[in-house]
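User: Thanks for the earlier help. One more: D-glycerate dehydrogenase. Can you show the sequence and predicted structure together?

Assistant: Of course, both are below.
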Amino acid sequence: MAKRKILVTRRWPKPVEDRLSETYDATLNSDDVPMSSEAIAAAFSDYDAICPTVSDKLPAGVFPAETPRTRILGNFGVGFSHIDTDAAGAAGIVVTNTPDVLSECTADLAITLMLMAARRASEGEREVRAGDWAGWRPTHMIGTKVSGATFGVLGFGRIGRTAAKRAHHGFGMKVIYYDAFPVKPEFSAETRAEARDSIEAVLREADVVSLHMPGGRENYHLINAERLAMMKPTAILVNTARGEVVDANALADALGRGTIAGAGLDVYEGEPTIPPALLRTNAVLLPHLGSATKATREAMGMMVADNLDAFFAGREPPNRVA
Ligand code: DGY
């Protein structure tokens, strides 16, 4: 039987590309040039599977009206708000993602951002590199102590809980959280985390607010000017989730006016473009590195391959989301 045709939209880790090429007639993107939505739309009639990433946009408009050749989208990533899953379902296309394998590294990056923002690490490095450091002095570049402070988690899922463990066990932080869905008692017990009954309650009480909810329509600009105004003037906002969860202009305004102390961001609405207002703030800005370690990116890719293999063998893919 001829091999199934699959399209991999970006360059992936070599061991994963090798595995996919062995099993499938795989079109790889060795130049790693982002594909346009039009090119992805055209691919639905040529490929049995498409393997997109967060850098591909698959809104309803790219999905064909008729049932296409493509049967499955094997997304490389846990977040899939860049894919209109309703439209995929209507076109009879299964969607899978890559949960769990990236929780530790993404949580590590949330803690990195917390510390960088709290200890003004980016500002300090910029000063050193610019040759502007005037030497040690007691009042120079004073930051915020996180040990013993309150770590507020919005979205107490796998990544949020993993970040909470690091904050609690590593820095003795008290953990509070809000999640729209019920949380198993054993999950909060791990960090003696206390539930709050609203986003607002977490925002008012936390010294660090770390975002871990999905992106997409339902959480669009959840953190807006009104909610930012509820945070403490000494508080720090960390976003390793999705850019669209935060209204970037409202955040830049809050940082500029000093109504919150700092922010650490890894994700942006419309990335890789960074909202200009944010560039003028003291926010720590990273280029979507949450899962960017060799082990994690390989594990993510292998998980996509597992999902495709199961699907084409007639089994339920282990990480089906739609
Ligand atoms: C994820 O897995 O969701 C990462 O943000 C990359 O898409």
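User: Great, one quick takeaway?

Assistant: The pocket of (2R)-2,3-dihydroxypropanoic acid is lined by residues 53-54, 77-79, 102, 290-291 (CB under 6 Å).
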